[in-house]
Amino acid sequence: MNQFATPTDEKNWAMFCHLSSFAGVIIPFGNVVGPLILWSMKKDYSELVDREGKKSINFQISMSIYIFVSAILVFVGIGILLLIGLALVNLIFVVMAIVKTLNGEDYEYPLSIKFLN
User: Fold this and answer.
1) Which of 3, 12, 35, 66 is deepest in the core (most CB within 10 A)?
2) Where are the transmembrane segments (predicted)?
């Protein structure tokens, strides 16, 4: 770990790992790629960044799976409601993770499958 990392810098980089998931609004799969790039760049920077980056990646991969299944269910009719619900859940949970991380609190995403430990 970086011996020169200040607590504020650690919190900021951990927050950016969560915030970068909004790249999915602009770039296809940016919700996974954004946190993955930041995490891979800064995972050795601090334990906090490593932990929060993994949480963000796990949640965004989980959400991508849920969105894919919901997109298939569009043909049945319920998929559109699920997609809207998932978009809201994603927005709310990511904002909650950002706020908790900046406040120095631990936040575990609900509905998240642990791909990275």
Assistant:
1) 35
2) 12-38, 65-98
DSSP 68: H
Determine the distance from the C-alpha atom of residue 44 to the mean position of all C-alpha atoms in its chain, rounded to a whole number. Answer: 18
Q: Where are the domains of the chain?
A: 7-102
CB-CB contact of 45 with 17 (8 Å): no
pTM of the shown model: 0.90
Would the pLDDT of 2 be above 70? no
* The amino acid at 103: N
- Distance set, CA 10 to CA 1, 5, 71, 90 (Å): 11, 6, 37, 23
Residue 26, token pair as written in the block: 């602009």
User: How many other CB atoms are found less than 10 A from the CB of residue 66?
Assistant: 18
